[in-house]
Specification:
Number of helices of chain A: 12
Order of helices and strands of chain A: HHHHHEHHHHHHEH
Structural class of chain A: mainly alpha
CATH architecture of chain A: Up-down Bundle
CATH superfamily of chain A: NCX, central ion-binding region
Function (chains A, B, C): Ca(+)/H(+) antiporter that extrudes calcium in exchange for external protons.
Keywords (chains A, B, C): Antiport, Calcium, Calcium transport, Ion transport, Membrane, Transmembrane, Transmembrane helix, Transport
Strand order of the largest sheet of chain A: 1-2
Distance between the termini of chain A: 35 Å
Subcellular location (chains A, B, C): Endomembrane system
Radius of gyration of chain A: 19 Å
Helix content of chain A: over 70%
CATH topology of chain A: A middle domain of Talin 1
Number of strands of chain A: 2
CATH class of chain A: Mainly Alpha
Protein name (chains A, B, C): Ca(2+)/H(+) antiporter
Oligomer: homotrimer
Strand content of chain A: under 5%
Family (chains A, B, C): Belongs to the Ca(2+):cation antiporter (CaCA) (TC 2.A.19) family.
Chain lengths: ~350, ~350, ~350
């Protein structure tokens, strides 16, 4: 959690005031977005603190499960509101945001400070192949059933979600039990707790409470914002929600790169994308099923393309165990080109 | 060849009896399937034995050419019966079956026994790039001519088949002549013969004779089975035929993984897929041309996708020279998701 | 520059005579094609000589910018004549020609002389990931806007061209300034100049003058050649123009491979493809905009496929740092299959 995000907390009272006044949904949207950035940071920090108290195994499980909690809360509200395309777009956007934007910024800023940075190729390779497999499973339904009113979409999506979730559980068994020596999750930044157990729990509860409120503000203002500003729901889902939901985590990745700890940087970026594909997406499919908002995994052609390209580029970039500022700039260029294309769709 | 497959030989007399009685094509289908599993095993074992007698060069040629003999016989009968979609589906299914199912099972079961398994990265890389190129050539006609009634499909498919076959011959020259030191084909399991020359020839002839009979039973019962069970021809072609046609070879790959000989395991799985693309598929195109059953290489979009994904996943997985049980589980999950999708197509 | 290309210079007077006589556009087309081969070689050689005189930094910039000058001139004339599909096809053809044809020939002929050839994996990996990113950016507009009359095609293409050009400038900063120790451009063949400064300039001017004339001949005879010979504009753009525009450079790559200098060979082939994507293509988009011939980056589905496949194959092949004649043969087979497919489209 980065301290200079604290001023953004001022957006909370403003958003509540704007909400109560009932005017200007555009302002409500922007203040809700701004306030979620530090809140998700506090949720992450509190989870990490609690993880230290409960020991490595349960702690690892906590970190793995709640790593994308803020984004999960936003998408659950979007799901409840029936904004299924926004939900799918935000899954896409989270994956490429982590891979291209976060990794790109990390390699660029890290590369400005250190001429050459290196990381463990074996670990990066393992994270990448896990990501690749997760992404493959995620996009299979869309590839096979490419019309949006296919009657088989729901059962196939549920079946695929089940298999993905099973792989997620197996990967937890792998990383927390049978091969726990391979993964050393971010010890560098969290060896000893800086908050007491009670403090951590209180922060987690309060931050979650406000994230819930701001997510509701955000989701209810999407429709008027789309009408007022002329940007598409797709753009909000692909670009805006993933950035605000992950901003705090992203800044950790960039900070680690600037401390020349590229291994942690890559683990955050690639691991977070994998978790979206193996855990968040299947969970949303199940929740949608029980909430009567049947979310299928039929991504659009554009979404498929950016997911595939983002994954392949990351695989190639991380294969040689080295990075420099130009690779960072190239990842950011790829992200910019894709974001630009989503504006024109 | 694995001895515990022997009981399945009992399916041979049952299938002949069911065939003669003329009842229950569904039972005929299942008994024919079951009997082909050990028979293809005996064909493979006999070929290997003969290969030892005739010396490394001709022997290597024999092993390379008859490695997929059982499956080739089944698909020739399907070709003769005009089941062109089944033939193309079984080419697809063999490639992904070898890459995802066999390699997945090998890495999973091998990984249960050995925490980490490793293999020669350079050899794996060479096999993988050969596979990639073979697959690229194979799918080009479908990518260029994406309608199934394209008049250019036949000449283009014949031309591509010719180039693929030429590459196959060149790859034999490479592995048996100019670079024979690089490839050491499965010496580990076949240093000294266990059968006499006459025994080997007799086993080969008898096994081939029965594979021919059972293939005829299998192909003639596909149509009634499709109607009776409600599964599609595509599913039989993609999932069922490749599994029974390669089951014996597959069990060898898994056994080698459990003996921690991952190099042989990978060579069988990747090499077998490459052979399907470079040798079996072009041969079927030529045979179809002469049999008046013009088989083009216009795979469906679904088939293209699974071929491409299966190949890319294998390339990424085998690039780091290591494997563990989770990678095996991930490959199996990818196979399950694809098989599930073929059920819903 | 290879001396045995000199006899082709005789095609210049013949082409001028054929042009003046006004007969036989087919002969004009062939003589123009033949004469461009040695001319582009002299342009390249003269540029390299001048580069030595002006010092490494400006020289590197010169080599990087004018490396594809002959092809750029041909495509500018095609652009002026409104042959937008030919221009896009030649961008595609240059990329796969460099990757599959040139690299294939280099690995094949080099591999005949040396059983195993090796090259620096790290450098190859860096070139490959740069190529991959360049290609990704290039094809994004086509992937997002897949109809040829999309009103957003022009603004998106201009935006993407701007980002690609920016990455090109950044990559020059990287290779000529911040990381100049990593790249050692072809010193092996150009340590000391063989021509005087004045000679080099004169050769450059004269060769460029004739390339301009022959390019005009070539472009004006495309239409009658298409009608007379029954081959498509697409085929001329994808296969013919890239081969003649790059033949001289290609022969250098092959010669280097035959001297066992695979690093230079790969640098030429992959670097030239990257330059097409990052510099030539965006430049043509900008020129088209100012010339009133709006060139968008909406490549056809076929073009997308061959660009993607050519890039991925090269990435996989160059990943292990080794090559042999079979890999060369496989690249050539992939090129032949694609060329064959373009004949049937």
């Amino acid at each position: 959690m980065v301290k200079y995000l604290n001023p953004l907390l001022l957006a909370i009272p403003v958003s509540i005031f704007v909400h109560l006044s009932g005017h200007s949904p555009v302002l409500l949207f922007f203040t809700a977005c701004l306030s979620i950035i530090p809140l998700s940071g506090y949720m992450g920090k509190a989870t990490e603190e609690i993880a230290i108290y409960v020991g490595p195994r349960v702690g690892g499980l906590l970190n793995a499960t709640f790593g994308n909690a803020a984004e999960l809360i936003i998408t659950i509200f979007a799901l409840k509101a029936g904004l299924l395309e926004v939900v799918k777009a935000s899954i896409t956007g989270s994956i490429i945001g982590n891979l291209l934007l976060v990794l790109g910024l990390s390699m660029l800023l890290g590369g400005f400070k250190y001429k050459r940075q290196s990381f463990n190729r074996a670990a990066a390779g393992m994270h990448t192949s896990m990501l690749l497999m997760a992404v493959t499973g995620l996009i299979i339904p869309a590839v096979f059933l490419n019309t949006h009113s296919n009657p088989a979409a729901e059962p196939l999506s549920l079946g695929v979600a089940g298999i993905l979730m099973l792989v997620y559980i197996l990967s937890l068994v792998f990383s927390l039990h049978t091969h726990k020596d391979v993964f050393r999750p971010s010890q560098e930044c969290s060896d000893s707790p800086s908050w007491s157990k009670a403090q951590s729990l209180a922060v987690l509860l309060i931050a979650t409470f406000f994230v819930v409120i701001e997510s509701e503000f955000l989701v209810e203002s999407i429709d008027p914002v789309v009408k007022a500003l002329g940007i598409s729901e797709l753009f909000i889902g692909v670009i805006v929600i993933p950035i605000i939901g992950n901003a705090a985590e992203h800044s950790t990745s960039v900070l680690m790169a600037m401390k020349n700890k590229m291994d942690i940087s890559l683990e955050i970026a690639i691991g977070s994308s994998t978790q979206i594909a193996l855990f968040v997406a299947p969970l949303l499919v199940f929740l949608g099923y029980f909430m009567g908002q049947p979310l299928d995994l039929l991504f659009t052609g554009y979404e498929l393309i950016v997911i595939i390209m983002g994954t392949v580029i990351t695989a190639i970039i991380s294969m040689d165990g080295r990075s420099n500022w130009l690779e960072g700039a190239q990842l950011l260029a790829a992200y910019s080109i894709m974001a630009l294309a989503f504006l024109f769709v």
